[in-house]
Design a protein that fits this description.
Elements (H helix, E strand, L loop, with lengths): L12 H26 L4 E12 L5 E3 L6 E8 L1 H8 L7 E4 L8 E3 L4 H7 L4 E5 L3 E3 L2 E13 L4 E3 L3 E10 L3 E6 H5 L4 E4 L3 E4 L3 E6 L11 E2 L3 E17 L1 E5 L5 E3 L7 E7 L3 H5 L4 E5 L9 E3 L1 E3 L5 E7 L2 E6 L1
Parallel strand pairs: 1-4, 8-12, 9-13, 17-20
Antiparallel strand pairs: 1-3, 2-8, 3-6, 5-7, 8-11, 10-16, 11-15, 14-16, 16-19, 18-24, 19-23, 20-22, 21-24
Length: 321
Amino acid sequence: MPEPKKSSGRISSKKLSNLKVVVLCIAAATTFWILNALNKDNYTTIVDYPIQWDYDKAEYMAVQPLPQSVPIQISGNGWDLLRKYFKLNEPPFVINLVEPSSKSFILTSDLKRPLGDFITPTTLIGMLKDSIPYHIDQIETRKLDPVLDSTSFTLAKNVEIEGEITFSPSQVTLIGPSSLLDSFGGKFTVSLDEARISENFNKSVPLQIQEELADILTLQDENIEVNFAVIQFLEGNKRLKVRKVNFPKSVTLENEDLTPMATYLVDGSKVTELKDMEFEAVLDYGKRNREDSTITIVVKPNPSYIKEIKVDPAFVKLKYE
């Protein structure tokens, strides 16, 4: 018996040629249909039409990005709708704002007629939003009072700032949109970026704006001079002489030989004044704690240049005869 012929799995050149003709015919027919369809009128679609904002940029500034398009429903020739849908060579519709800071939106009903005229021969059927929001403020120049950022520096141990902190210039001039300037509350924070300050401070430091606001706000001065004096407190201690006040004869201390010890911090420039000062542990019977029969020790005198006085023991126990 003759062997059956095996198929090569290949399409003959004649069949391939016929297939190409069929594909070309379908493509040509589809193209003809599309072109014919696009030439027809009365199509309706929704597009995001590009818009452009026109206002006095020397007097006003956009605080937030402005909308770049507005959704509208239009009808017309297929070619025109195709161009508008894909924004092909379509000029943006310009929205003119005379006093942009007086409002935060514009009604689309006010744009319908001029926009309809602008997009002819396409017909504007309607606007899909009632309004277009925007945030444009008037540009102002403000004088702000500088204040020191307490988190931007540290003082050495037992060091405190004495008196007022002064700045030169005494005010910071900031230029920008009014609403952002209002958010500063009349104050501008100055950062030192210093650690363990132990001496009087006199230094010119750079003025900085938050990175996200750097393109919106302008500082007139780049640096400011910061001045303040510091006090170095020294640790000290003294034994106290006990002085009883208002004690009846029948009341004594459980430990009559008690000698309290006071520890404190003293202004380094006042140490000599402290040497000859006599300190007492004052026990006022009239201020006793009746519940546990104790009296809290009060150190006197207590000059202003001494702070953080601690007494050991902090109180004494009374004994009644």
